[in-house]
Amino acid sequence: MSEVDLSEVYRREVGRCTATLIRVLGDIDIAEDAVAEAFAIAAERWPETGVPPNPGGWITTTARNRAIDRIRRESTRTDRYLAAHRLDADMDEPIDPLEHDLDAFVDVVPDDQLRLIFLCCHPALSPDAQVALTLRLLGGLETTEIARSFLVPEATMAKRIVRAKRKLRHNHASYRIPSAAELPDRLHTALTAISLVFTEGHTATSGADLTRADLSNEAIRLARTLAELMPDEPEAIGLLALLLLTEARRPARTDEHGAMVRLGDQDRPRWDRSLIEEGHQLVRACLRRNQPGPFQIQAAIAAVHDAVTADATGWDQIVALYDQLLAMRPNAVVALNRAVAVAELDGPARGLAELDRTVDAATVSDYQPFHATRADLLARSGRTTEAIAAYDAAIERTGNAVERDFLIGRRAEAMAGGDG
Fold this sequence. Notes:
Helices cover 70% and strands 1% of the residues. It is mostly helical. A two-stranded parallel ribbon has the order 1-2. α1 packs antiparallel against α2. It is globular and about 65 Å long. About 4% of the residues have low confidence.
């Protein structure tokens, strides 16, 4: 069995297996550790024995056995022995992850991974902690990847995740199954988690490839399932539209040599027109509801980007939509994207002024897109020395090989252009 095969099993099964043990144990740390150990055992055994017919079941059973051993080994009180006994008894029969004792919730949320999202969105946690925990458990994202999404240092995010787990444990706040009436209250967090899974798939934090199609595809599947589950929630429809319209550009984001291509330079006939058409239909459906929300506005921005040519893009519309989005969600990422749109509409100097005016550099000091955007606007404004320094800052913060090569190339072009 190849390393790639094991990684595919991991991405597909880690959330389901972990959720099963969390539900039975009521302890996230033990569940995560047991599943990680099970995958480590699989890495040793499967190359010799082959992949079992039901990889997820094998991982879950192995993790179950390891968890039992750990609980019994560390037991110092009667309740620990009882927990091990319950775990042993509950898993004597073959299980389908997240199906055991969840019949009522299955009727409400029929998808395994989507259930895990709603289970993670526990009201005992802050919204950021809910999303971070979901990203960790759902897709097995590394702390570095999650930290990038929140614009915080890796150490800060690691502490945040640990505190979230501790709070659930100390409050005895096990992952209680929410009722159908409670789902709307947890919807925004669920949508945010799905969007961040897609973001990591759209541009991977690290690695040799620009994208991670497995994460993008899973996020789209979850968004589609959620939109079908909650068809009266316009933000769910808006998220699906946003992901489809963004995913439509994937074929043109790299050239035949695998090099990254900027949006304005992409070969637009390579875009997936079927995804664009579906996305546009969903955006129109959202407009008819007249209940605007952040994901719907982002979907509308993506729809305007889908002009036949780059020159035909309605940048005035995009700036107006970003103004509306910034009023709803005032944060550095939205302000950064708005500054880019202003630069396209009124020139790089104006965009740079907006960037400096609306984005606190200290807040985004470790956020690579901030430095890359600033470098581009400085270079286009003729401020070469400053541009090169900004490119250096962006390159230093880039873990993705394709993105790094792109930035290195842009830095070389800025140097060749000379100071203005």
